[in-house]
Specification:
The chain is mostly beta strands. The protein is built from one helix and 17 strands. It is 4% helix and 50% strand.
C-alpha cells in the first residue's frame, strides 16, 4: 500500500470532519476487512472503561494495527488541536480520549487516502468498537495501535461507567509556579441510593509509566488548582468523586498532558 495512508476521522452531528488522525502505511502495518460479520463488543486495554456497540444487522469490520512513531509532522489535526509534533505518549492518549465513542451520536469515518492526490480511494462510515494502544518497548519508547472499526448505523452504545464518572475533565497551566487549574462536570449517577458527593480524588503523574500520586479534597466543587508540582512539566491527570459512603467512584478520562506553571 505504498503511496497511501489511513485516516480516522471524527465527525460532528452535521457530518463535518472535526478531528483527523493520519496513519502512514509502512512496516508493521496490518489491515484486514471482514464482510459481513456480526460485530462482537471488545473491552478496552484497561479495566477503567468498556464500550459496547450494537450495529443494526450484519456489518463490515475493518481491523487496523500499526506502529506508532514520534512524528516530525503533526498527524493529528482538527478543532482544538495545536502543535506540529506528536510524541508516542501524546498519540496514545489522544487516540483513546478523542476517538473512543461515548454517545450514539458520535460518528466516524475510516478512509484509505492516496497521498499524491489526498483523495479517498475508499471509505467507511460507522463507529469505533475498540482502540488499544500497547507499549512494545520503553527504551527506546515504541508502541502499537489497534483499531476495530465497524461500518453501519449505530443503534445502541453503552459506556459502562459513563454516568458515574466526572466528565469534561480538563487542565490548563495555572497562574503560579507548579500549578495546574482543573475543571470538570459532576457525574449524574452516584450509585445505589444516590449518596451525595462528599469529596473528590485527583491523581496525577508525569509519564504513563509513573505511579499515580493521589490527593483528596472535601466538597463537591467543579474546579480545583493542584499545587506543588514540578514547574514547566507535563502531567497526566484524572479525577473521581467520593460519596458520603466513602466510596470512590469511577475515574474520568485522563487529561491530555497539562503543563504546570513555570518558575
Amino acid at each position: 500500500m505504498a503511496g497511501y495512508r489511513i485516516e480516522v476521522r471524527k465527525l460532528n452531528t452535521a457530518g463535518t470532519v472535526i478531528i483527523t488522525y493520519q496513519i502512514p502505511v509502512f512496516d508493521n502495518f496490518n489491515f484486514s476487512i471482514n464482510s459481513p460479520v456480526t460485530p462482537t463488543p471488545l473491552p478496552e486495554e484497561d479495566s477503567e472503561e468498556q464500550i459496547l456497540v450494537k450495529i443494526e444487522g450484519n456489518s463490515t469490520t475493518v481491523n487496523l494495527t500499526w506502529k506508532l512513531i514520534n512524528y516530525t509532522t503533526d498527524q493529528l489535526t482538527g478543532s482544538g488541536i495545536s502543535g506540529n509534533t506528536r510524541t508516542i505518549w501524546e498519540q496514545m492518549l489522544a487516540l483513546k480520549n478523542t476517538f473512543r465513542p461515548v454517545s450514539i451520536d458520535d460518528a466516524f469515518t475510516l478512509a484509505i487516502v492516496d497521498t499524491s492526490t489526498s483523495a479517498d480511494v475508499i471509505s467507511w462510515s460507522g463507529t469505533i468498537n475498540s482502540i488499544v494502544c500497547s507499549l512494545t518497548s520503553t527504551t527506546p519508547v515504541s508502541a502499537t495501535g489497534t483499531i476495530k472499526f465497524i461500518e453501519g448505523s449505530v443503534v445502541s452504545l453503552y459506556n459502562t461507567d459513563g454516568s458515574k464518572k466526572p466528565t469534561n475533565f480538563s487542565g490548563v497551566t495555572g497562574s503560579s509556579s507548579g500549578q495546574i487549574d482543573l475543571s470538570w462536570t459532576l457525574p449524574t449517577d452516584t450509585g445505589t441510593g444516590a449518596p451525595s458527593i462528599s469529596g473528590y480524588r485527583i491523581q496525577y503523574r508525569s509519564s504513563l509509566l509513573a505511579d499515580w500520586t493521589t490527593v483528596e479534597y472535601t466538597g463537591s466543587a467543579t474546579s480545583k488548582t493542584v499545587s506543588g508540582l514540578t514547574a514547566s512539566t507535563s502531567y497526566y491527570l484524572r479525577i473521581a468523586m467520593i460519596t458520603g459512603t466513602n466510596t470512590i467512584g469511577d475515574y474520568s478520562r485522563v487529561t491530555f498532558p497539562a503543563v504546570s506553571s513555570g518558575a
